Amino acid sequence: MKSNAAGRSVPDLSSRGLQPFGGIGQPPMRDEQKSRKIRSCADYPSDGNKQVATLKSALAKAGLSNGMTVSTHHHLRNGDRIAIQLFSAAKELGVKDLVWYPSAVFPCHAELIPFLNDGTIHHIQGSLNGPLGEYASFGNMRDLAVLRSHGCRYRSLQDGDMSVDVAVIAAPSCDQFGNMTGAIGPSACGGLGFAVADAEYADHVIAVTDNLVEFPCAPWQISGNYVDQVVVVDSIGDASQIVSGTTVPTNSPERQLIARNAAQFVLETEILKPGWSFQAGAGGISLSFTIFVQQIMQEREIFAQFARGGSSQYLVEMLESGLVKTILDGQTFDLEGVRSIRENPNHVMTTPFTSYNYHTKGNFASILDCTVLGATEVDLNFNANVVTHSDGQMLHGIGGWQDALFSKCTILAIPTIRNRVPIIRDELTTFCGPGELIDVVVTERGIAINPLRQDLLEKVEGSNLPIKPLAALKADAERLAGGAAERAVPEEDLVGIVTWVDGTVLDVIHKVRKQK
Amino acid sequence: MAHDLVTGGVAMSWQVGFAGGDVRADVQITAEPAPEFGYEFSSTISPLYDEAIAAQTESIAGQFGRPPVRLHCVDSGALPFTWAARLTAIFSMILDRAIEPSTKTKVAPQPGMRRSRLYVPGNTPKLIPNAPIYGADAIILDLEESVAPQRKFEALAMVVSAIEHLDWSSSELVVRVNAGDQGRVDMHVLASAPVTTFILPKVEMADEIVDIDQFLNERNSNVMLFPLIESALGVENAFAIASASKRVTALSLGLEDYTADLGATRTAGQSESFYARSRILNAARAAGVTPLASVFPNFSDAEAVTHYARTAKASGYEGVGCIHPNQIEPTHLGFAPSDKEREDAEAIVAAFESASEQSSAVVAVNGKMVDLPTYNRALRIVRSTEGSR
Questions:
Q1: What is this structure's pTM?
Q2: Interface predicted TM-score (ipTM)
C-alpha cells in the first residue's frame, strides 16, 4: 500500500494499467489515444438494411464469446429492459464471463444478479448502486468494480483503458441503417449522449429498437455509420420509469431549506447574475435548487446564458419562458425534457465528450458558473465521498459528479445528518473528490465556505446568510447524534476502485464486513 | 402501539415506538418477561452506533434497576434523545411508574414575537430535532391532537426527552398539553421543565384557568398559559378566561372544533367564524394578552399563507399557527410591516422614549398625539422588523 496524492493508501494496481492519483492537473498516463478500426462499406449491405431477426442472432453474428466486454447505456434509467434481454440472449448462446460496461446501473438491474451468480456476467465495470452495489460490496462479484465518472468512462474508451467488444444501444427510434434517436417513439427517453462513446469506439455496435422507422430517422442523434446491426424487439423499456426516485424535487422541509439556502447563497454572492450558467444534478435537493433559482430569476428578471442538464420540467419551463437561453443536456430526467429536446432547437443534446471529457481540448463543465451536487460524506478539508455510505457499502454511482467539480463554484448541498449519521467526518470512508475543487457546503444548519475561496468569504461579509465553519456544522451534527459515528471496519479484500477523471486511482473500496 | 398486553391478569408484553414502512429516526421497543434483564437490537445504521446504543441501553436500564425483561429493539436511526425517551417509557410501563417530572435547570426562552408558531407532533421523533431550524418564533410540541390516546404515555416521555436533550434557545418553547386528567399529568411532569408556555386545549370556563394556575403554583412553576378556545361556550367566556390568571399570555380560537361545535361547515371565507374570531380578538386585547389567529391548513401555497397572515395582521392578530415549516417564511412575510409602517413606528418609538427620558407628558409625531397604546403598537412593529427573516 502506498499513499497517493489524496493521502489515501492504495495498493499497486499497475498490473491493471492503473496508477495512483497524482493530483489535479497532472499529465496524462498515455501519450496516444485509441484509434478506431477502419471499416469498409463493402462489408455492409449496399441497400443500407442492417436488420437482423433477433438480438440473439445479432450477438452470435457479432462473435460474442467468453470473456468479452459488452456495454449498454442508461438513458432509460430505471425502465431499462435491454440489459436483461442482452444477458438472457448471451446465456442462451452459452457465453460466459462477460464483462458488462454500462454507463450507469439502476435498481431495475437487480434482475441481473442471477446472471452474475451463474457466470454469464463475470463482473461489472463501473459505478454500482442499489441492489448491485450491495451485492458487490459484500464481495460477491468475481472482479473489482472500477468506478469511473461519466467523463472518465468516455476517456477510458478514448484512451484505451477499456475496450468494448459489443455495444448494445437501446434506440427509442431507429431506421434499418442504424440512424437512431431517443427523442421519439413509445420508449422516448430524450438524448442518447451516453451511448455515443460506445458507438464510436466499440468493435461491434448493435442498435436495438422497439420503433423501427423509415429511412432516414432524422434528425438522428447517433449516426448509423457506426452501427453494424439493427434489431427490433417488442420493448426496450418503460419510458415512464425515466422519472426515477432521484429526479423528483424534495418534499422534505429540511431539504427544501438546504436548497433555499443554496439559492440564496448564489444570489448574495452574485454568482446568480445576468448571463450566468448553472448545473443542478438529479437529486431532490438539486432539483429544488433549480425551482428556487427559477423564482429568483423571475422576480429579478435575470436570465441564464445556459444551463447544464439533466433536464427536467423545471429547466424546460425556464427555457420556454426565456429565463434560460440554452439547455445543454446530458440526460433527460422526465417526459417534459423529452418533449423539449424533440421540439426545441435550443435544447441541445450533449455527450460526455463535450461536457465532461478530461483528455480533450476543454469541456463545458469548467465553463459553468455554478454546480450544485450531493455527497454522502465530507471531511474538514472539503474532500468528499459520493459512492459509499459510512458503512462502506457502494450505494451511489459517481455519475458526472467528479466532472462537475470543475465548475467555477461547486456547491455540495447536503444535510448535516442522515439517520443519525453525521455527514461531516474527520476521515472519509471513500475518497471521491478533492476538497480544493469543492467551494461551499450548504446544509440545513448553515453554510461553510472553503477557506481557499477568500473571494466568496468576502462576498458574504455582512450578509444574513448563516455562514459557519465546517467544523461548527460537524459539531452541531455530532451533538445531535451523540458523537461521531464509529468507523466501519471492512475486510481486507478489495471490491472496488475509485478512479479520478484522468483514470488514476483515488481510492479503493474494501469488502463490507457482515454483521453478526 | 404503546400498550401492555394482559392475559389472565398477567402482562405478557409491552411496546413503544414505531417501526417498519416509512418510519425513520425512531426505535420500536418490545419487552417480554425474562429471567433477567437482556436486550437485542437491529439497526439500519449498524455498526456505526452499535456501541453507543448498547451503552445507552445499559445505562438507562441501570437507572430502572435492570428489570427482568428482554427488550427487542428495531432501530431506524433514532437519535439518543429518542432512545432515551423510548427506553424511559418502556421501563416506566414495565414498572408501572409515571414519567418522572423534568428537573432540568435550563432557562425557558422568553417569548418574543409570535408571528409563527409551528406545531410539531410530540410522538414523531424524526420531526422534532429540526423544528428549531426553520426560524419559527415559537415551537409547539404537541401532546394533544397529533397523539393517539393509547400513545399519550410514550409521547410525554418523548417530549420530556426532547426538551432536556435538544437546543431550543432560538424559539419560544411551547407544549400543547391534553385537556382533563391527562393534561394534569402532562403539566405535573413539565411544570419545572424549561418550557415557556402551555397551550391549554378546549378551555370553556375561567375556573379551569384558576385551577390550573393553582396547580402550577403548587409546583413553583413559571410556565405561562395560552388557552385555546374551541367551543361556543368558550367564546362566550373568552374575556373571563383571558383575565383569569396573570399566567395567561395569549388567546386563540381552534377553528376546526369550534365550527364543529357550532354545527357549521368551515369555509374558505370563514364567515361562519367571524363572530368568534372578533370576540376572541377583542377579549384578548381587553385582557392585555396576545391575540393569535388559528392555524392555516394549506401549506403548499405560499401566497395563500402570506395572504392569510397579512389579513390576520390587518385584523389585529400578532401571529398565526403553522402546521408545516413551509408556512413560516410566508407567514413572516405576511406580518412584515410596509416601509412606511416601519418608518412611522420607528419615529413614534424614538419620540415617545425620548419624551419619557425627559419626563415630558406630551408627545406628537407628524402632528398626531402619541399615547401609550400607540407607542406599544409601534414598538411591536419595530420589534417585528428586527427579527424578520
A1: 0.92
A2: 0.89
